[in-house]
Write the C-alpha cells for this entry.
Amino acid sequence: MNDTVYLVGFFCAIAIGFWLGRRDKRKKVRKSKERLSKEYFIGLNYLLNEQTNEAIDTFIKALETNPDSQETFDTCIALGRLFCKRGEVDRAIRVHQSLLARPSLTKKQSLMVQLELSRDYYSAGLLDRSEGLLTQLVEVNAGFQVEALELLLAIYQQEKEWLLAIEIGKKLLKNNVVSYSNLVAHFYCELAEEQVAKSNTTEGREYLKQALKYNKQCVRASLVLGKLEYSQGNLKESLKALQKIYNQDPNYISESVPLLEELRLEQSGSVQKSVNSYLQKCLKDYPSVAIVLSLAKEIEMKQGAKDAGKFIAEQLARRPSLRGLNQLIDIHIGIAEGKSKKNLGLLRELTRKLSDGKPLYRCINCGFSGQELHWQCPSCQHWGEVKPIHGVEGQ
Ligand SMILES: [Zn+2]
C-alpha cells in the first residue's frame, strides 16, 4: 500500500512538473511530450494493477520514444530501485539492463545504471558480477566513488577477503569517510587472528599494530595481543595489553578476566600482584560480576571459602547478580552439611534454571542478543557494537 501511494505521488509530481515546464514549447515538441505523458500514465496504470512486466515495457518504450528525456531516465532508475528494495531483483535487473542497452545514454547516466545494476547483482547473490562492475566504476572515478567503494566493501566482507577489504576501507578513508577506521582495524584483527591461529606470531603482531594504528580504541586488538603475548610467555606484555581495555572500552573488561586469571596463576609474584590490584581498580570504577567472582576466587584460595562468600554477599548487596548468587550458593553448598546442604542444592537448581539460556551479549545498534561475543553483529553487520550485557542477568 505504501509503495502504491508513493508511486501515485511520484508519477503525478513528474507529470505536473513536466506539463508546467514544457507548455510553452513549440507544438512539435509538445506533441512528443504529450505522447510521453500518456505513456507515463499507461505505465502507472499497469503498476497499480500489479502488471509489472507491462509497466516495465511501457517505461522502456517511453525512453525509446524520447531518448534524451531526463524524466524518463529518472523514472526507470526509481522503478528499478523500487523492485530491488521489494526483493524483485529479476525485474530490477531487467529494467537496468534495458536502460544500459540504450545508445543515447550519456556517460554519467551509463555509469549510474552500472552502479544500480551492481546493486541488483549484489542483492541476487551474484557477487562476482557485482564486483566486476564496481571495480570498473572505481577505476573510472566519475562521481559514484563512495557508493561503489561501500558496495565493494560489503562484498569483500561477505567473502572474508580481508586484505581487499582493507584496501577499499583505506580508499574510503581517503574520501573522508572517517567512520571506516574502526572497520579497517577489525579487518586487521581478522588477519591477526588467522596468523595467531597458525602460530605466525610476527605477522600477527604486525597486523595488531596496524589495527591499533587505525583505531587506538580497538579492544579486540588488545585482547588478541594479550593472548599472543601470553602464548609467548611474555606475561608483563600480556598484562599491559589487557590493561589498555580499561581506557578503550570498560564494557569489555569482563572479556579479559579469564586471561587475567591465567596470568595470576603463573609463578610470577609481581604479575600476580599487578593483576589483583588492577582487578581492584576495575571493581571500584567499573564493577561487574566477572571481576567480583575473580577476586572471590583469590580470597577463597588465600583466606578460605567463608571469607570469599562474605565478599560475594557484600558485593551482591551493592549490585544484585544471578551469576554472583549462583557462586555464593555454590560456596555455601561446599561448607554446609545435612539438610542445609540439600536445601541449598534445591535453591541452586532453581537459580540455574533462571540463568540458563539468558543472553550475555547485546548489539547496541540493532538489539540482537546472544550467548556469544560477535565482533561483527550477525544481524545488522555492524562491527564492535555487540557488547556484554550488564545488570542482574548479565555482568
Ligand atoms: Zn546489530
